[in-house]
Write a structure and sequence with these properties.
353 residues; alpha+beta; five-stranded mixed sheet; elongated
Length: 353
């Protein structure tokens, strides 16, 4: 319930009634003392009451007319209009603020939708064009269907498959149909398996791509650091796999030649919680961009060269979703060198939902 405000509409209407009665009573007293005819007093009283009512009514209906125009514009797809008077200290001010907030949300959703269509179109066009060029060369006899040519075609097909799979994950996220199946497991063997899959993917083993990007660099050393050795975690193993794999994939892509990516696991500050870190030796993320790195299709200004191979800009968005599904937090932490992504999971069964 909205707290009482001295400027509420109820207060204004009550004041209008009191003022009207006061004016009428005052004019009647004047008539009795000055022998003025009652009909003149009645006319003056009606006119004064109408003027005051008109003034108050205009202050109440003008914002409603503005809200109607803005709502009609929003219904036709114009999300740039805003209601004036959101600073009013009454119910109409609250309503104006709510409509403006709704318009902000709808404008953001519409912008994300447009960006999604544009980015997906761009991401699909590149591998499709490459695959088409390879197949046309084979059909036209320009090149032979040798293993090397087929590997090129297969690489583009796998890239398409990864993108489609990631988009399906995002669709499940938006529809809220991904259940969380949390269980307790030992961290060392679990993370060791994730790193092994990442290494096999880099070695060119099809079907073992660890993340949405599926990096193919094999000049980066993956290092696992878990303490204590018997550390356990409570999480959905499949969802956590998406987190770690995508973070490794991102770190490897941005690592220098012969660089090192470290996956570190420690107990969290709260009992039963888990703290995961993925640290690389790359250029790092500028502080001004850190709040955007987990947005969909955001690749950052540093994502060029080696880091730009086949990345969709969706891996970190998927990682954030999976962490938040556990009730945890993911962020870019301070690091003297490279990029350091910190993931904290609450671990308690009641926090997983």
């Amino acid at each position: 319930m909205r707290p009482f405000s001295p400027f509420s509409i109820k207060t204004k209407l009550g004041t209008l009634v009191v003022v009207s009665v006061f004016i009428t009573t005052g004019l009647l007293l004047v008539a009795l003392r000055t022998d003025t005819e009652l009909r003149f007093i009645t006319v003056f009283s009606v006119i004064a009451s109408m003027l005051i009512t008109q003034f108050v009514a205009h202050g109440l209906t003008a914002p409603l007319d503005d809200m109607t125009r803005v709502a009609r514009a929003i219904s036709h797809g114009d999300f740039t209009r805003r209601v004036r008077g959101a600073g009013r200290r009454d119910e109409l001010g609250d309503l104006a603020s709510t409509i403006n907030l709704m318009a902000d949300d709808l404008e953001a959703v519409d912008r994300h939708r447009r960006e999604l269509v544009a980015n997906v179109s761009h991401e699909l066009r590149t591998p499709i064009a490459a695959l088409r060029a390879v197949l046309e060369n084979v059909v036209d006899g320009v090149s032979e269907a040798d293993p090397e040519t087929m590997r090129t075609a297969l690489k583009q097909t796998e890239r398409l498959g990864r993108l489609v799979g990631t988009l399906l994950d995002l669709s499940r996220v938006d529809n809220g149909v991904v259940p969380l199946r949390a269980r307790r497991f030992e961290v060392w063997p679990y993370l060791s398996g994730v790193l092994k899959e990442a290494g096999l993917a880099a070695a060119g083993r099809p079907g073992l791509a660890s993340g949405s990007g599926g990096h193919t660099r094999n000049d980066v050393h993956l290092h696992l650091d878990v303490f204590p050795p018997g550390l356990t975690a409570y999480a959905d193993a499949e969802r956590l796999h998406q987190v770690v794999a995508n973070l490794i994939d991102n770190a490897v892509k941005h690592s220098p030649a012969l660089g090192r990516v470290t996956v570190r696991a420690r107990p969290g500050e709260a009992p039963g919680s888990l703290a995961l870190e993925v640290v690389d030796e790359g250029p790092g993320i500028p502080e001004a961009e850190r709040h955007r790195v987990f947005e969909r299709f955001n690749r950052g200004s540093a994502n060029s060269g080696e880091g730009g191979d086949g990345g969709t800009g969706l891996g970190l968005a998927i990682a954030r979703w999976a962490v938040e599904l556990h009730g945890g937090r993911i962020r870019v932490a301070e690091s003297a060198r490279g990029c350091r992504i910190l993931v904290t999971l609450p671990g308690a069964p009641q926090a997983a939902h």
